[in-house]
Amino acid sequence: MVASKANHSSDRHVISNSERKDRSIRLWGERGQLALEKGHVCVLNATVVATEVLKNLVLPGVGAFTIVDNHRVSEIVMAMVMVMVMAMVMVMVMVMVMAMVMAMVMAMVMVMVKHSERDLGNNFFVTQESIGEPRCHEVMKNLLELNEEVKGHAVNEDACEIIMSNLDFFNDFSCVIVLWERGIPLFLGKAYGMIGLWRNVIPEVCIVESRPEYAKENYRLANPFPELSAFVEKFDLESCRHPYIPLTETTPTPFAFSSPSPSHSFALQALQRWRAEHDGKMPQTGQEKDQFRELLDDFQLAVGKDEENFVEAKALARHAYSPFEIPSEVKAILSDAKAGADSNCQDPFWIIVRALRAFVEGEGGGCLPLSGMLPDMHADTKSYIDLQNIYREQAARDCSHVSARVQQILTSMNQRADVISQAEISLICKNAANIRLVRTRSLQEEYTSPCCDDWGWMLDMPEEFPHYLYVLLRAADRYKALKISLNLATSASSSGCISPGKDPKLALHGHALHTSRSK
Amino acid sequence: MASTDVEMRVDIDPDRRWEDLYRLLSRPGPSAGPNFFPGDETKELLHNLIRVLVVGAGGLGCELLKDLTLLGFLNIDVIDMDTIEVTNLNRQFLFRKCDVGQSKAVVAANFINKRVPGASVTPHFCKIQEKDADFYQQFQIIVLGLDSLEARRWMNDMVCSLAQFDDDGNIEPGTNIPMVDGGTEGLAGHVNVIYPFVTPCFECILPLFPPQVNFPMCTLADIPRTPAHCVEWAKQLEWDRVRPFGDDTDLECDDPKHMQWLYETALKRAQQFGIEGVTLKFTQGVAKRIIPAIAATNAIVAAACANEVLKLATAVSRHMSTESGGHYMMYQGGDAIYTNTLSHERKDDCPVCGRKAVKIHVHEDITVAQLIELMKEDSRLRLKNPAISVPADTTSGMKTIYNPHVKSIYERTRENLDHPISSWIRSSGVELTVDDPVMATQKQVLVMFS
Ligand SMILES: [Zn+2]
C-alpha cells in the first residue's frame, strides 16, 4: 500500500506492481509515477466532472484522494468542481502530477454533455443501489474498486460552506486565497450542454522533466570543448582516413562505408576549415552559410558517394555555425527574480537554477550544461560510442561545476550541504534545455480584473473571438449568484443551468469542435 | 433484438435519469440540423431504434461504452478479439484483476449491462474479419476504438463496401453508414468522422499515418549503436538464425520465454559492442512496439467520439464535417493543450472510395515478386501480403498468379514469384484482382507497362 502522506525519504519508495503501471510509466517515467503516487487530490463536489477526473487519476495510481460533498445521490447540485492537488512532494517531481491533472481535466470538459445532474443518468460511478446514499461515499467506493493501491477519503460536508458558494465574488474566497498563498494548485471545471470550461489556477509549478517531443540540445559544435575537437581531429577528411580502419587491400578507400564516420566529425571539420579560411569567423550571411554547405558537398564529392552521414552532417550544419541560443522559456527561468544572485528562495529547484545561471555566466561560456545525450547517427559502432562517451564525460564535468555552485550558494545561505542531493542536481542539469515554469493568474486577479465590463461586444463576433464563451459562462455564474442571493426557486429546471435551447449563443457552439487557448 | 425487453426496462426505470439529456433533445435550437425532431421520436430513436457498433473494447472501447450508454444509446454491440491483460488495468476501467485472461468484449458488456439500467450491450469475442457484410449492415453508426492501423483500414473498407449506388451513381440513402474513428497515443489523439463517399475515408487520409521506419539491415547486422539496434537484431536476424525453441516455433512476443530470450540475446550483443541501456522492459517496448497509454487521453477522445455519435444520431447539433469546419479533430495534450479541427480532401485514386482501379506503372520485365513489392510500397496501396489473380478463360473467370493465404494454393503458386509478370499479362492495361489482409474486399489494380 502506498503511503498517502509523502515524506522526503523518497528513495525508499519503490514502485510496486509495475506491470499494471507499465503503459503509464512508459509515458511519464518512473519519477513521474512516484510523483503521482505521492499526490493527494481533493475534490469539492462529487459531480460527474469531478468523478471523471478522479477516475483518470485513480487508474494510473494517484496516492490518495478526498471527496468533499454532502449531497445524496440523485440530488441536484451546482456543476462546479474544484480540484486541489495537495502533492506534498519535491517541486521538481510534482510537475508530473500537474501535467497529468491538466490532461485529465480536459477529459471531463469534453466528456460531460450535461450540467446539473441526475447522477444515475450521468455519473458512471454511482449505481441504482446508491440512490439516497451519501454521494461522496458511493463515488469513493466505486472509484476505489479501480485500484487497490489508492487511498480514498470521503467528507460528507457541504463544500460550499467550506468555500463560499458565490463564484462571482472570489475575493471573498478565503479558501482559494489560502491555497494560492500556500502554492497549492487549484483547478476549476464546469460543463454546460456541449460547452465546457477548465481553469488552472497555479501559483507556480516548475517542470524538470518536461519530456518534449523534440528535445532541444546543444552539441557545442560552434564552440567545441577540447575533448570534442581532439576526437574530430582523428578523422582525416582530406585523405578520407577513418581512424579505426587500417588501410588494407580490401578497404581501398578508408571510407568504405561499411564503417562510416559520425556526421559530427564532418560538420565540425568543415566548420574548422571554413573558419581557418575566414579569419576565425563563423559563417554569418546567407551566402556564407551556403558556401559552408558547399564545403560539405566537396567532402562528399571527395568520397564519391551519396552517404547517409553526409546528409546528417548537412542537417547539422545549422547547429555548427549558429551559436546555441538558450531556449526562451529557459532564459525566462534563469532571469527570474528567484534565480537572482540576491534571491533567498530556499526551494531546491530555485537554488539549482541559481547555480545553473552562475554556470552559464561562468564556466559554461553562455551554454547550458550538456545533457550527455547523443542522437543516433550513421556511424560505425566504435566512433559512435566514443563520441557518446565524450559527450557524457563533458556532461558530467558540467554537472560537477553546477554542483560546486550549488554548494557555494548553500554555504552562503548557511544551509547544510546535503539538503540538495546530487541526483536532484544531475536531473536538472540533464534537462537544463527543457525545464519549464508554469504560473497562472490568481482567481482573485481574474475576477477583479476591470476589463470584464467591456467584453460584451465579443458576443457579436463568435467566429473571431471564441472567448465569447468565457463571457457567457461568467454571465451564467453571475446569474446563478444573483438567484442564490435572491433566494429564488431551486427546482430542477431553474437551477441555473443554461440549456442550448434557451440561449442561441451557447448553442452555436455545438457546430463543430472548436477550442482555443488564451494566454 | 431485445427492443421490447429494453422498452420495458426503460419504462420501469424509476428515476427519470435522462432528464438532462432530454433537455438537450426536447427543444428546438438554432444549432440543430434540419433533420432534428425534438421530442419523443428522437428519444425513442436513441433508446430503442438505433444500434451502434463499438469496434474494440480496450482503452477507448471502455470509455465509449460508458459514454454512449449514459447518452441513452441502449442497444450496442461490441467486438474485440483480445483477452484482458494486467497492463490494461491502468486505463481500461471496466476490468478488474480477476478478469485477466477473459474476453474484453464479454467482460465489458457484462459490466455495462449491470451498471447502466436498460443497457443491452451484446459482446462479440472474435476478430473483426470473422464477421461479414450482413453483420456490419445491421448498425446505424459504427465507432472505432482501435489501436491498429490495419484493423482500421479493414473496417473502413468493409463499411465503405456496404454503400449502394443507384444507376446514376448516387448513393442509396442510408447505405453509407457513418463511422467515428478515435485514436490515441500517449498524450495525443484524434477523432475522425467518416461518411463514406461524402467525406474522405480512412484510406484517403492514410498518409497522415506514415508507415513505421525500420532500421537499415546493415546497421543491425554490422554497426549497432543504440540499445534498440541490439533488440531489433535479436528479433529480426538472430531469432531466425538460431531458432531457440525449435525450427517450427515462430517468435511470439507475448510469450515471456521468447521475450526473455530476446532480452538476453540483445543484452549480450550490447555488451559486446559497449552499448548501454538494454533492459527487459526496454526490450519489450521495442519488440512489441508498445505505445504508452493512459486513461485521461482515452477519456478525452472517446468523449468527443460519443458526442459525435449523438449528433449523428439525432442531429441535435451539427457533427464534425467539412461544412461545419472540419471532420478531423487532432488533440495534442503533451505541451499544455492544443486541438485543431480540420478537413482533408477525398482522393480520386483512393483504392477504397475512389470506385475505380488503382493504376500502377511498371516495367514489362519485372517478376511477380517485384510487382508485389511495388504494391506493398505504393503509397496509395500500402498492401501487406497480397494475393493476385488475372481475368482468364476459366470457370471462375480468373486465374490465380500468387496466393499466400491458402496453403494449398500457396504451394502451387509460390514458384510463380520468380516469373516475369508478362507471362500472365500480355499487354498494358490489364486489371489484376488483389486480395490483401488490410482490405475487407477485393481491389482492382490496373497494370500499365512503361
Ligand atoms: Zn477513400
Summarize model confidence as the mean pLDDT of chain B: 92
CATH class type of the largest domain in chain A: Alpha Beta
CATH superfamily of the largest domain in chain B: NAD(P)-binding Rossmann-like Domain
The low-pLDDT segments of chain B are 1-15
Give the rounded overall mean pLDDT of chain A.
72
CATH architecture descriptor name of the largest domain in chain B: 3-Layer(aba) Sandwich
Number of β-strand runs of chain B:
13
Count of DSSP H/I helices of chain B:
14
Order of helices and strands of chain B: HHHEHEHEHEHEEHHHHHEEEHEEHEE
Radius of gyration of chain B: 25 Å
CATH domain class name of the largest domain in chain B = Alpha Beta
In total, the number of strands of chain A is 8
Number of domains of chain B: 3
Which CATH-level-2 architecture of the largest domain in chain A? 3-Layer(aba) Sandwich
Helix content of chain B: 25-40%
For the report, how would you describe the main beta sheet of chain B?
8 strands, mixed
Flag low-confidence runs of chain A. Answer: 1-13, 75-82, 84-117, 165-173, 245-259, 488-519
Morphology call of chain B = globular
Numbering strands along the chain, what is their spatial order in the largest sheet of chain B? 3-2-1-4-5-6-7-8
CATH topology of the largest domain in chain A: Rossmann fold
Structural class of chain B: alpha/beta
GO molecular function (chain A): NEDD8 activating enzyme activity
Keywords (chain A): Membrane, Transmembrane, Transmembrane helix
GO biological process, one term (chain A): protein neddylation
Protein name (chain A): NEDD8-activating enzyme E1 regulatory subunit
Describe it for me?
The complex is a heterodimer of chains A (519) and B (450). In chain A, the strands form two sheets. In chain A, strands 4-2-1-3-5-6 form a six-stranded mixed sheet, with helices on both faces. In chain A, strands 7-8 form a two-stranded antiparallel sheet. The radius of gyration of chain A is 29 Å and the shape is elongated. The longest helix of chain A is centred in the last third of the chain and has 32 residues. The two termini of chain A are 40 Å apart. The N terminus and C terminus of chain A are likely disordered. With 519 residues, chain A is of the alpha/beta class. By secondary structure, chain B is of the alpha/beta class. Chain B folds into three domains: 248 residues, Rossmann fold; 71 residues, Arc Repressor Mutant, subunit A (Orthogonal Bundle), CATH 1.10.10; 92 residues, Ubiquitin-like 2 activating enzyme e1b. Chain:  B, domain 3 (Structural Genomics Hypothetical 15.5 Kd Protein In mrcA-pckA Intergenic Region, Chain A, Roll). In chain B, α10 packs across α11. The termini of chain B are far apart. The N terminus of chain B is likely disordered. The chains are: A alpha/beta (519), B alpha/beta (450). Chains A and B meet through α1, α2, α3, α4 and α14 of A and α2, α4, α12 and β8 of B. The complex binds zinc ion (ZN). Zinc ion (ZN) binds next to loops of chain B. The site of zinc ion has 9 residues of chain B, from loops.
